[in-house]
Amino acid sequence: MANMEQKEAEKVRELIKDIDTAMLTTITEEGLVSRPMKTQEVEFDGDLWFFTKKDTNKYDEILRNPEVNVAYVDDSYLSIRGRAEIVEDLHKKKELWGIAYDKIMQTTYDDPNIVLIKINAEAAEYWETGSFTKRVAFMFKRVTGQDAESAAVNETVELDK
Fold this sequence. Notes:
Elements: H1 3-16, E1 21-27, E2 32-38, E3 47-53, H2 57-64, E4 67-73, E5 76-87, H3 90-96, H4 99-104, E6 114-128, H5 132-143, E7 154-158
Antiparallel strand pairs: 1-2, 1-4, 3-6, 4-5, 5-6, 6-7
């Protein structure tokens, strides 16, 4: 990654590092659908990883249309747009697997039905909730019809590799 991209990835990494659950949104034939996914304990480097099974709707949806969004909520809000791909690498599955998955997935990492979803992040938008003054200034400017950009409470970062 270039320096700017590395800096942006570090910001995303900091925002998601302690969040256990993300909401993965895929595109179905009827529209958008979101579902909770367990966040992998791996440092964000521009890619997100999740486990799933081949016999799920999200697996089929990603094969049809890899455009996805992942949302995280904690003290801040983060929305990551990217492209998903299915990864069946046994070594990567073993690397990311934890004992909790034995119970969650009711199987083991070497089950041929278990696959990884790798999301190549393209952009992230985040809202930091820690700045009360910034939020008040933003809302005041919005309500009074002023340009609220100077008091924006969110920021978008491009993560293209």
